[in-house]
Amino acid sequence: MKTEILSMLRSTSDYVSGQSICKKFGVSRTAVWKIINQLKEEGYEIEAVQKKGYRLLEIGEVISESELKSRMKTKWLAREIYYYDEIDSTNTRAKQHAEEGCPQGALVVSNMQKAGKGSRGRGWQSPSGAAVYMSLVLRPKFLPNKASMVTLIMALAVVKAIKETTELSCQIKWPNDVIINKRKVCGILTEMSGEQDYIQYIVIGVGINVKEQTFPDDIRQKATSLEEEVREINRKEVPKRAYLIERTMYYFEEYYELFEEKESLAFLKEEYNQYLVNKEKEVKVLGTSYGYTGICHGINENGELLVETEKNTLEKVCSGEVSVRGIYGYV
Torsion-angle region of residue 186: left (phi > 0), alpha (psi -120 to 50) or beta? Predict the structure, then answer.
């Protein structure tokens, strides 16, 4: 009921009477008063005026289960939300929930990670309140050989969400990074459990640097945050994390439903390639037995990266098998 009351307050700039809340939910004024106080303790500024009711004023940086649920505009995605103030890893916890039978679309969100996971087994720096840390559980009907494509869908959803909430220009470094001004602002880690011809579940972990100010020496030159980039164009505030999460889920649901129907990325290939940082540029493909350089021509309908080699052959690069870099560095 706390989520529903928050949604009522958020839906209007006017006062919402205590009586109307009581009538809608069939509860006493005392119960409403207790919930209003709980919301205040979570950080919401709520004005209470006798004979008028309650009004939600300026909302600070609040991230909670109620805040996230009251914002969601999706049809089915992220309607089940597990929020933790502190956690080992959202991917680890999402897999636990998946094993316990949570529904498709369940979302795990944390304010802080103690053991964040990055690609290729690397750790992910996860300080409190500085970023979006979330993992999404999917239970698809398509075959395991298509699972890696959801990483590309999520990358595009993150780009659209950041662009809408900040007006920053983002690009995608295939397959799982989102970058701004040649530096990484978001990483995506997709993990799957299943058999050769069956997917039990997929977990997609997303980390977006929002307010990060300092980075470890080994990544300082290739990492950034929304706050740092927004400052460069003289905007005063970064989007609230809950809003960024809601927008990401909204766009992901839109793309994912089409992907489930078509089981191909042909419908978003053109849009995705517009954001691909290395498109029509020289790249290094690393991690194969030999490695090679070539010109990147974007992705195909299977999410494979098309690279034209110096021998004029067109290689189809699969995500997870190799690392693709710009010829002079990270991008």
Answer: beta
Domain check: are 140 and 256 in the same one?
A: yes
* Region for 201 from its dihedrals, namely left if φ exceeds 0, alpha if ψ lies in -120 to 50, beta otherwise: beta
Rounded CA separation 62/100 (Å): 28
- Our count of domains for the chain comes to 3
Give the C-alpha distances (Å, rounded to integers) separating 119 from 89, 128, 212. Answer: 13, 21, 19
Q: Respond yes or no on whether the N-terminal peptide bond of residue 103 is cis (omega within 30° of 0).
A: no
Other CB atoms closer than 10 Å to residue 134's CB: what's the count? 26
Phi, psi (degrees; rounded to nearest 5) at 177: -120, 145
Return the biggest CA–CA distance within the chain. Answer: 79
CA–CA gap between residue 205 and residue 228 (Å, rounded)? 23
331 found inside a domain: no
pLDDT values of the chain reduced to their tens digit, one per residue, 331 residues: 888 898 888 888 899 998 999 989 889 989 999 999 988 888 788 888 888 889 988 666 888 898 899 899 999 999 999 999 999 999 999 999 999 999 999 999 999 988 766 655 556 556 667 899 999 999 999 999 999 999 999 999 999 999 999 999 999 999 999 999 999 999 999 999 999 899 999 999 999 999 887 776 667 778 999 999 998 776 667 889 999 999 999 999 999 999 999 999 999 999 999 999 999 999 999 876 778 999 999 999 999 999 999 999 999 999 876 788 776 666 6
Which 3 state secondary structure label does DSSP give 57? strand
Tell me which residue range forms the domain holding 28: 2-59
Q: Is residue 118 part of a domain?
A: yes
Token representation of residue 274:
């517009």
Domain boundary (249, 273, 297) is at 273
> Does the reported pTM lie above 0.90?
no
107-110 sheet: strands from edge to edge: 81-84, 107-110, 131-138, 198-209, 183-195, 177-180, 171-173
Asked if residue 166 and residue 24 are part of one domain, the reply reads no
